[in-house]
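User: Can you predict the 3D structure for this chain?
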Amino acid sequence: MKGIYIVANDKVIENTIALLNSIRINDPLIPIYLIPFDDQYHNVAEIVTKKHDVKIFPDLKFIEDFTGQIAAIFDRDFLALPNKMRKLVQWFGPLDEFLYIDTDIIIFESLYPILDYLQEYQFINCDYHFKGRKLNDVFSSVVTEKNIFSSQELEDVFNSGFWGSKKGLFSISELYKILTECANNKEYFDFSQKTTDQPILNYIILKSTENRLNLVKLNNHEPGSWAGSKHFVEKDHKLYDKGKPLRYLHWAGVPLNPQGNYYELWQYYRYLGEEKPANISVDNHKTNYWDIIKNKARKLLKK
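Assistant: Here is the predicted structure, written as structure tokens:
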């Protein structure tokens, strides 16, 4: 079975709704599973299970046990939030082939053609991290100095917000072994910009796979996807990069608020199928956050 995993809790309920609205326009029936980030996920779960036909990851005990094992493997001065690694449980979930998508993303096309690449590849992603940020936010210079990975392998570094893989890529014991390698070699990783799971996930993939694909390398005309790029052109609630339609837009490290890039486009997807509030100020977005969430949740659940 092919499908999508997301990780969310009540704090990202707005972004989660926008993401799922954008997915359901293009793929009304694709299976979607929510992995709870922590125990504070019941409000978002109540909405998305009804509104978007999302299912909760079926083995919550496995998630709890996994989080506990992560906490045991990593010192807190290395990995302050073990829950950040919960996205790794999807290799042991119900989907045979899957995409993982961060909640600060909106989707512009069907995801099935992307998932089809997993018939041939063990791991897929779609971003320009290798070309822009390169090893920043992933690995330190120690990795190249000690030849931990080849220069060719390091061309496959990726942003951890949008990627896909297959169930059974490794066993849980094999994964714990790789994570222990990470914990014992903190100097390999670049956490200078407060990234969390991204360096670890890159290490896991480079160690575990040989057959990888970055979709932006398929040709010289693949569009971008980063909301920090201001040159995208909007038409009919989609974005275009020099005439090429974007697959998705990701606010990685970019403010997703009324003063940020493409915020009106995000609002379109957030309020798709419901009445958009007349005014959303920056102050209200911050100070009245939970009141806004509760009111919108009530409206959605009445539908």
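The first helix runs from residue 13 to 26. The chain has one domain: 2-219.
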